[in-house]
Specification:
The complex is a heterodimer of chains A (about 500) and B (about 240). Chain A has about 500 residues and is α/β, with parallel strands linked by helices. Chain A contains 18 helices and 19 strands. In chain A, the strands form four sheets. A seven-stranded mixed sheet of chain A has the order 9-8-11-10-12-13-14, sandwiched between helices. Chain B is an alpha+beta fold. In chain B, helix 1 runs antiparallel to helix 2 and helix 3 packs across helix 4. Classes of the chains: A alpha/beta (about 500), B alpha+beta (about 240). Chains A and B meet through helix 8, helix 9 and helix 10 of A and strand 5, strand 6, strand 7, helix 6 and strand 8 of B.
Chain lengths: ~500, ~240
Amino acid sequence: MLSRIDQSPLYRVANPRSIVFFGGSNKIESMGTNILMSLLGMGFDGPVFPVHPKEKTVQGLTAYASVLDLPVTPDLAVMVLPTASVNPTIEQCGRMGIRQVVVVSGGFKEVGGEGPTLEYEMVEICRRYGITLIGPNCLGVANPHHKLNTTFLPFEGRPGFIGLASQSGSFITQMFNYMARHHLGFSTAFSVGNSACIDIVDCLDYLGACPHTRVITLYIEGLTRGRAFVETARAISPQKPIVALYVGGSPAGRKAGSSHTGAMAGPDRLYDGIFRQAGIIRAANLTELFDFAWVLGTQPKPRSRGVVIQTHSGGPGAVAADAVGRTGLTLPDLSVQTLEALQPYVPHTGSVANPVDLTFSKNPMDFFAAIPKVLLEDNNVAMLMVYFLIPLPVIRRAMAQMGVAPERLESEAGQMVAEYARAFSQLHLQARKPVVGYTWRGLEERFVQLLMENGVPLFPEPERAARALAALVRYHEWRKVINADPVTG
Amino acid sequence: MNQEINMPAPGKILAEAIDRGQSALSEFQSKRLLACYGVPVTREALAKDAGQAMEIARRIGGPVALKACSALLMHKSERGLVMLNLKSDDEVGRAYEKLASAAGFELEGVLVQEMVDGQRELMAGLMRDSQFGPCVMLGLGGVLTEAMDDAVMRMAPVNENDVAGMMAGLRCKDILGAFRGQSPADALTLVAVLTGLGRIGLEHESVAEIDINPLVISPKGRIVAVDALVVLKKGKSHAVTH
C-alpha cells in the first residue's frame, strides 16, 4: 500500500500541472473536440496546449503543429487520435520527456486484426520511456478537486469523496449528473479501458492513498492480476471501505470440470468469495454501488445491528421494518427511559414500538429535532431510519388557513421547510450514529435537497436505505474481525 | 540422484500416480494425500482378495462399506460399485467378489471402509482459477450437491477468519450448528480441512482439482471425508521424477 499519494505513478495523471491535447479541433462533431471542451469547460488551472496539424487556434487556444514545438514539457498528454497515429505520437511524447499519457482512441486489443500488435507496441514504447499510460480505449480521468475532466460529458456538480476505478468509462462521465443530483461527487475517477499499462489494481492503490477519497468504488468485468488485486484491496479495506460491482459472472460462464468443485466454481461465486476475503463490500447493481458508497462515506460506525424506524405513517413504517428485517439487521425494543422521554411527543394515536409511528406530531418541529434526539440517545438503538413526508402544498394550505398573505406563502413555507431541514441536519451531525432517510417525494424538493446537502443519505425507497445500512454494518463487522486478528490486523 | 528417500509422503503419492500416467488418484490414494494435510478420513484399507477384505472388516469393527477402487473410477456410486452396511464375514466376502468382477477392468483393490454415521453431508474442494490461482470451496454435499448449488469459495491460502466467513455464507449454515438434537460441527476440523486443501493447491502444481464429497458431520459433530477425488493436471502424465 502507498503511504503517500505522490509516490503513485498515477499522481501526475490525476494531478497534472499542464496538458497537451491531441485530437481536438474546431469541429464539434469530433470526439476529441468534445473532450477538449469538457476539459476547458471545467476550468482546468494549468496551460492546455492543443496540437493540430493545420489549425492555428483550437477552441480559442494557440495550437501547435507538433508536440515538439511546445514551449514546455507538459505533465500529461491526452490523445483522441486515429488508431494509426497513436503509437508514433506516444513515441514523440516520450522523446519530449512527457511521462503521463491518456489514450482515448480505440482500435487496439478490443478489436481483432492489427489491434493486439499495436497495443503490444504501445506497451513497449511506454516501457522504453517510462511512461504511465491509461487506456487505450478509455475515457481517462476525472479529478474534480483538480478541475480535471478528460471524459466526454461536461462535469456537473462538485468535488466529492467517492473514488472510482472503472472498466467502463460510461460510469464516470455518465454519472456526473446522477452524483450531482444526490449532492455526491467523485474524488477521482479512473476509466482504465484496455489496461495496457495501468490497470484497476494500480488505480485502487492510488485511491487508497488519495486524501479526498473516503470510500472507493470499483466497476469490474474481469481482472487480469487477481492475486495482486486481493493483496492491494486487503491492505486498503481495513482503513478505507471498498465497494465493488462485478458483472460477467452468470452461471452460464461455468466450465465443465471433472469434479463437482470444478463444475460449481462459476466466476460469480468466485468473485463473491474473493471480495469477502479482501473486505470488499459487493453491490448488486450500479445504484447500490453508489448507495453503499454514500452511506459508507458519510456515516459513522454502528455499534450493533439495531435499527429504529421513525415514521408518522403506518404503511411506510411497516415496509421499512420489513426491509430492515430482510437485510439481517434487527429492530430492537426501545428502553424504558426512551419510552418515558417520548411520552410528551406522542399523541394517543401513536405507537412507541419499533417502528415508532407518531401518526402526527403535536408540534411539527418535534419530528425533526426532539423525537430523533431521544431515539438516538437510546443504547439499544445503533442506527436511525426516518421516513420523510414534507409536502409543500400542505404547508402552504395550512399557512393560508392561519392567515398568511397569499404573496408571502411561498417564501414562508420555504423558510419553514428550511428550518426543519436545518434542525434535522444539526442532529445528524452531532449524532455519532448512522442516520438515513427515505421518502417517495421528489429528489428536487427543497427539504430533500437541503438534507442531502448536509450529508444525510436520503433514499427513494426504504429497501435501498436498509441495504445500505446493512452494507455499513457488514463493513464494520469485517473490520472488527480483521483488526482483532493478530496475523493480519 | 534418488530423491525418493527424502520425499515427503504427499509428494510421493503424487509422483507415483504421475509416473503411472494416472489422470486422477484413486479414492484410497486421494485420502492418503488429504490425510497428510490434516483432513480426517474414514478408517479404511485396500483388500486384494476376499480373505483380506474380511480381515480388514473385522479390524475396523462394526458394519463396513466396500468400494471398487481405481484411479479410473470417478463416479463409483452411479455405476453400482459401492456396497454399504455389510455386517458379516459372509456379506463382506460376497461383496468383494461382486465388486472385483463388476468393474470390468483390473482394480487397485477393493476398499474396505468404516461406515460413518451422519445425515449432514457437506462437500469441500479445490480448483484452480487463471487469475486467483488455487481456490477452495465449501458447500452442501451429498446427492443434492448440484441441485441445491449451495457453495462458497475463497482464494488459498485461507485462515480461520476466512473459514468462519465461509461457514456463515452458506444457505445451509444451520446444519453446522446444533441441529435436530445433534452436536455442532467441529469448526476447528473444518478449518483444518479447508486450510489443508488450500495448502495442497499451493504446494502441488500437479493437482488440478479436489472433491471431498461427502464430508460427513456425525451426530457428535465429528467431521470425516467419506469419499474423495484428486484430479491431476492434464499433460503431466509423462512427467517422471528424476
